[in-house]
Amino acid sequence: xxxxxxxxxxxxxxxxxxxxxxxxxxxxxxxxxxxxxxxxxxxxxxxxxxxxxxxxxxxxxxxxxxxxxxxxxxxxxxxxxxxxxxxxxxxxxxxxxxxxxxxxxxxxxxxxxxxxxxxxxxxxxxxxxxxxxxxxxxxxxxxxxxxxxxxxxxxxxxxxxxxxxxxxxxxxxxxxxxxxxxxxxxxxxxxxxxxxxxxxxxxxxxxxxxxxxxxxxxxxxxxxxxxxxxxxxxxxxxxxxxxxxxxxxxxxxxxxxxxxxxxxxxxxxxxxxxxxxxxxxxxxxxxxxxxxxxxxxxxxxxxxxxxxxxxxxxxxxxxxxxxxxxxxxxxxxxxxxxxxxxxxxxxxxxxxxxxxxxxxxxxxxxxxxxxxxxxxxxxxxxxxxxxxxxxxxxxxxxxxxxxxxxxxxxxxxxxxxxxxxxxxxxxxxxxxxxxxxxxxxxxxxxxxxxxxxxxxxxxxxxxxxxxxxxxxxxxxxxxxxxxxxxxxxxxxx
Length: 493
Fold this sequence. Notes:
By secondary structure, this protein is mostly helical. The protein has 24 helices and two strands. Strand 1 (8-11) and strand 2 (15-18) form a beta hairpin.
């Protein structure tokens, strides 16, 4: 057997292991290189780490382990190893290239730009064109995202983060930023999934926990949101976003609860003021604000401010178009205001959300009220109250019929004649219905008069006039006077 000297020892009579740490480290590096070539990165990583333990000041070992970390998508560790490599060999160009690649993957543009400068100083021919383009694109979309954020254009921020992820698909920072703005847009499930994936890789990721807390907060699950924000602040006491939202959440909860208490004790003006104050806490919290608008609408209704109640219900529904209570409240207010078409529309939406027997009955009542409202108001036409007696109805008709009869307007313009004819005809209809007990009962109950035999079609206003005044003349109730001959032959167009 050959003599290898005292720098090696024999093991199992056939394996030579160097006794010198440097040679042993070099052997481990070479074995690591072989594993790296066949993509066994974790095994290669272990050998590079053993080589570093043996020779902690050798730059190439850190460079190789940095490459391994990069293949395992552990860019933070890769960046640290590349920096250690530079520490021991400031001219190691490949290490700077790895720093540049890691900086792109981590979204660290300052580090990336510094690396580009160092690479160009060391080797003008280094092929980093793709990386330089990526840095420029990241810089562009980060700037556009910041501008969009100032304008509250959250969709544009999400778009910019997607473009950044095109260049740096593993960057956790871009992913979490995207998730945060998805939460602002109300896309909570997508935001939660991104945050959960980040936490699967790192349970201590304070930003991911913050995003989960944001989603809970915007879904009006305040107690769970509090727990998340508290956890964030334990991990990162200076996390400003978590602290700001935590304060808003506590203020919102307290003010809303104070408003509820004021309402329960019938202090409605105070409740109104507290709900208004709560609405100003966080305009982005759509779900909580929808409930606050509904609560304030309820207060407005109790204060007999029906139109204002409708406005608050509408504001609530703009934030949550499936808010059943707000739809029911607004429909009820529309009924109170006599705006039956709007009430019917709201009750139809209610039935689509929840077709209960009670809701179907409300819709039926609203449709009936709408149909009833479209009929002519014969009491109004005659100028009497709904509880007017038979004699009051006759007296009112007699007075208006003499005023509206077309013969009194024979010398008027065509427009005036037409208007008087219409009014005279409606007056005859009104008297024909209200002077007939059966027709009046049907009219008062809201039934459609045309649905019954002898409804509206048999009422001739001229005949009504002639019959009425003939009876009145025969009874000597009053004298018609010379201007109104006993027989009229006026025909309506």
